[in-house]
């Protein structure tokens, strides 16, 4: 539902959808892909695929909770493995369509993967933070151990490093190439005050969490790891703002109150829906045989 206003405002948001785009030879070479009907069709296709996978896996998970049928584990595993490939492909194209095409003259083969890894990183930060909070009470308290936190922290660290690697690779290739169709993308994001935002990303999206997540004591300590997760969630929003906002008219860094209100409003609606769904489901599988031998050393709070 939140995407409907975007679809209704395509000519306002996307240069390639405006009438004057017919006079741009560069955009016209991409017109077979960048046109409104095909854009809407792809968007509907992405959401249809994601809904299909989420609905099917949720259905089988709920069925296993009711029946304890162990065959459903194999079905979910067989469905999820190719689904991971499908999700990576569709999400990569979605980020190219929705965000990279905001500046249709510019392109990067790394962009889709870089943005996808960033969102996976944010997802890990959210899941870890939520697990830390919920592990204060039963039933998750009986299953969550310091080793679990350590492993989750390692996963977040891995995706943070991968994001940094892809981001730096894209920057160094474009900056060294200095091609007129590529370099303006970074010039807009390193001038007019935006360079300070870029420096903030270097410090708080890579350097600080890199040092913190190298420490075993932080990854096994709930409060410290929770703070790192909150930092990652906040800095991911800054990164999205730095990528998207200069694509429009805001060539100079001018922070508006709507820049804070919009993510709070949209994020609040998403969180309300998420917790409404979470409240109606068990926090741990009810009849999963893999939990039989799960360690019961609880996290110390």
Can you tell me about this structure?
The chain is an all-alpha fold. The chain folds into two domains: about 1-105; about 105-285. Helix content is about 70%, strand content about 0%. The protein has twelve helices and no strands. The two termini are about 40 Å apart. About 15% of the residues are buried.
**Can you count the helices?**
12
Low-confidence segments, given as residue ranges, are none
- Rounded to an integer in angstroms, the radius of gyration calculated over CA atoms is 22 Å
In which range does the helix fraction lie? 55-70%
- Order of SSEs: HHHHHHHHHHHH
Mean pLDDT equals 90
**Which structural class is indicated by helix and strand composition?**
mainly alpha
General form: globular
Strand element count: 0
Percentage of residues in DSSP E strands: under 5%
Distance between the termini: 39 Å
Number of domains: 2
The profile of the biggest β sheet is: none
In quaternary terms, these chains amount to single chain
